[in-house]
Protein 1
Amino acid sequence: MINKQDFRKINDYLWEIPTSFHPDMKVPVWIFADEELLEDALGDLSITQAVNVARLPGLVGHVIVMPDVHQGYGMPIGGVMAAKVPGGIISPGAVGYDINCGVRVLASEIEYEQAKAYLSDLASVLYRNCPSGVGEKGSIPLSTEELEQVCILGANWALQHGYATENDLARTEEFGCLEGADPSHTSKRAKERGKGQLGTLGAGNHFLEVDVVEEVFDPKAAEVMGLKQGCLAVQIHCGSRGFGHQICTDYVHDFQWAVINYGIDLPDRELVCAPIDSPEGQAYLAAMNSAANYAFANRQTLAYHARRSFQEVFGETTLPQVYDIAHNMGKIETHEIEGKQQTVCVHRKGATRAFGPGFAGLPPEYRPLGQPVLVPGSMGTESWILLGTKENDRLSFGSSCHGAGRVMSRHKAKRSIRGDRLRQEMENEGISVRAGSMPSLAEEAPKAYKDVDRVVGVVSKAGIAHKVARLRPVAVIKG
């Protein structure tokens, strides 16, 4: 049992569990939180999970815990770890089941006051054009050969087929395609699940949302991003669907043997892993990159459907992309650790990359600003656009929070909240809601989540990222 007394307070927004807490800890645990959010984090097993992660072999720096942290599979959601390359490990559970779950934001010049009367119609059209729900099929069925091309090309596949623009790819993390993807390392079952789901949202906490840019905090950055106060924007939150889920399932099973073969002593079987430079580790990395590229293509095709939905309701209009970023990924990166540059595999599970100004992987207009960080709130509450900072590399391997973070389990939310009442409350607040399931709507009620403004406040005050704009929802599409 971990108590508040076990932490060393570094400053008002950073706390440490030192390696002396447990004899098997390889690195300390750092948690970014204020007093209230730290208490929230101690309400489940997320900090215990972070300590377990710190006991894995080959880690460097710190295990990072973001203020939106909550309990996950093996590694807490809102966790970051870095393993040496070579010499470290890679863990499917520390990446997550929804590989490259992420967020895309599109901007517009449509003023909310002028669009208000049409938002109900827009919500209905978006719900029709952007399928959502468990197992829902999309409008772009793929053959096995086409699926493999999506795995290799990522968002470039969407560009080749008319679903993307060059600007979309430029404003996507890794330009929408990770190198090293090899679909031959994915199972037949994974491919069968993925072939029919391109261009779908799925269920759970995935959504498509129409927002209004409520407040701008950095006018210069907002202008570069195309965000205008009082105008509409679109958020798309989804990942690699059943394809990525099956890949994680397959490798969690297969790695049970890897830990035995390589003599890895696990603190928790859910943290099953393999040496990253082993055949097993390389196979998972190739499969994970395949799922990541599928997810980039998935969000890209959903953006295409969102654009044609806007055109159907408002006539000729453009929705330029602000950015697209992942928050469940393992990435090979170089970071300064203990005064020297090291190549590491950064596992971000429920955490986004947040590199600062000068990063070469950004389009030219963003390099002086830093990387956009997209932080959706809970359903019906505000979301945020941030920018990564230069000093964040030494704080958290250039990572940030990814959302509000749960404080109530899905099961508890469904037992205590009625979806139909929640929907009516949101409609009364001027938010058009389209959802296929009232229980799934209840799972994502705002009271099931932390206060996203508080989470973002910690991230901002800790120096991880700074605020650009806050978005308010006016239409929500869910499975």
Protein 2
Amino acid sequence: MATGSIIDNSQLQKDNKSWLQFLSRRKSNAPFQGEKRCKFVVVGAGFAGLAAAKRLAELHPNDEILLLDAREIGQNASGRNSGFAVAHSHFPGRFDAKLIKGYERIDRLNAQGLDILRTEIINNNIDCDWQEGGFYHAAADKSALRSCTEFIDYLTKRGVRHQVLNQDELQKQLGTRWYKEGVKVNDGALVNPAKLVKGLVKSLPSNVTLHENSAVDSIASGSQITLRTQNAKIIADKVLLSCNYEMAKLGINKHKIMGVTLTGSFTRVMSERELRSLGNVRSWGVMSLHGGGATLRLTRDGRLAIRNTAEYNRSDLFSASKTKERGQLHRQALNNRFPQLKDVEFEHSYSCVEGVSVNKTNFFEKLGDNLFVAGGFNGSGISKGAVFGKALAEYASDQTSELIGDCLNCPGALWMPPSPFLGVGARFMMRQRFKGVGKDR
């Protein structure tokens, strides 16, 4: 039996709402209580879990699909990320022709994830500030500039649509001279992730039953699987785990993935004059070409958002006081890039947790006869989460397809040491992540 709670402190949720801070509150679904037998249970209602539950509901219209989340919708990583739905992943290092099949496989998965989300948004009229047309990758210091050269070479050799931008061109579009060079990749989408996940929940099929604040405390495998929450017992024929790094707390894949705690801040809504100082693109996203660099968004409603810290914190959110401290780093990073906006105050700071594997790959597998798991999205969980969730549902339904094959053929996540060595290794990984970040932080 695997044990361990995957619910975090309720006060941390209240202090760390992220995008939900600016949305009207929805009435949450009641926690699951009592005992139940069912055919399928999906654990985790982020992008992967929602896609899995929907696809199971389509494939098994006469069965109830039980969907459990440890928190309220949008309080997991799906509502706390920076809102980049990636089409073309950035692979560090030089283009390697021997890896072309892997590059193509990841691109197919990203593209199908985008297709899944685009279809859901159109068919269900989901208002989530979905904006196609790609986003920027930019470099301010020498390490990131080397990565920029390599990334441009990769995009060119792959035939990916892009525009190379010098410092003057970046200033015209983004309103900052902080970045010395960049590239805009034309594919991919920006989104308000909390709006999207709320819309996906609202459009779930009628045979999906969602229970929030229903953390799974233990999973016992056998001919059937027994799940226990604080007030409930569920016996299921098949279980799909889509709770990413949190499955490690249940003893599953605990040596393959860990949670890294990130922090970010949003400014207040800016005035028209302030917005005009940010170049001629009215909504954009910038990813640093250094792995430890800042991620920025200019949102549809006129806020600047920045995220630029990553630390090992045992897969937990930060306290309000620690998050506020990290906000001082956000302030300096924003002032560096946009000194004309130094008087634009932050309205909200938050923390979030990203699932990371040592070799930055995903996992998609069947454990035993009836437990199916997917995760390890390494910061690209919107498009990848959607496609892995759909594929996991089809895999659990005994289907075969090129999509399932692509997921199964992703390189496996490498082994991580147990505690206390995990903490030592995690902190070493964080130091390596920020090595040479310089002005890109």
Protein 3
Amino acid sequence: MCGRFTQKLSPREVYDLYGVAGPPPSFAREPRYNGAPTQDFAVCRVDDGGSRRISELRWGLVPPWWRDAGMGPPLINARAETIHEKGVFADAFRERRCLVPANGWFEWRGPSQARQPFHLTLAEGRHISFAGIWERWETRREVIESFAIVTTPASASLADIHHRQPAIVDPEWFAEWLDPSSQAHELLDRLSTPNPGPYERWSVSARVNSVSNDDPDILRPVGEQLRLI
């Protein structure tokens, strides 16, 4: 799964990553070093005309039919294996896909009383795009646009830390993922194999356990850094 991630790209970097034209506006919040569910993050999606747009959406999918936006736990992840058939995700998968720019994500390993957190990312500092889906929930007084991150079985080089990982979309299939007319079975085929990397991972301080700690020191290695090829 993915329960925390880092999004410290500048607006310019996000716009350049997805080829969005025009000068980028400033984000309405600071970089997320220890980003958590219910917070807002930048995502890339397409408008009704098929043009790419950058929006800030809440992490934790809110289905449009919920009577209350808080009636259930935040739906932060959607399993690639079942996303097309689970009612809570199926419509968004067919019609409302997005890309979530990131610098890396966190996972924990070990017994519950002494879990060691790790930061995981693509090697050489490459920007990451998580596969995402989004929804719009609204009443007469409130509108919430939210997203979930698609997950896959972990790459063999990361599976000793956690058996799941975010689905990573390579630039050559950005257009296919964002296009609502793409064939679902072709997308599912792509998602069925986790991105092979290479990855880098390193252990970080237990400060990451508290969402109130959201600063660059969160990413500081506390043990030997391991690069995986």
Protein 4
Amino acid sequence: MAAADERWALEVGQAGDERPVLEVVGVRAGAAPGTHLVTFDGTGESVELRITARDRSAYAEGAIAAARWLVLEPRAPGLHPFDAVVDDLLSPARSTVTA
């Protein structure tokens, strides 16, 4: 967000110091196979998006989709961002990649 809009990049504090306006925090806790909470927290309110996995089957389906994506065509060795797999999954031109 800060890269898209410089207003999020820095603010001047009371001591005259510059600090980031946008704070990103990650916390790993609990025993559930997957509970993700994204919170947009403001001065007077918070907006939350919660995703709760009941089991690991969705993660397995994603791994299988990624493996199928890798063998569809020659790929360079190394890491590939998962958004490329998702883009192909959602693309009407690529109906051969299925989860």
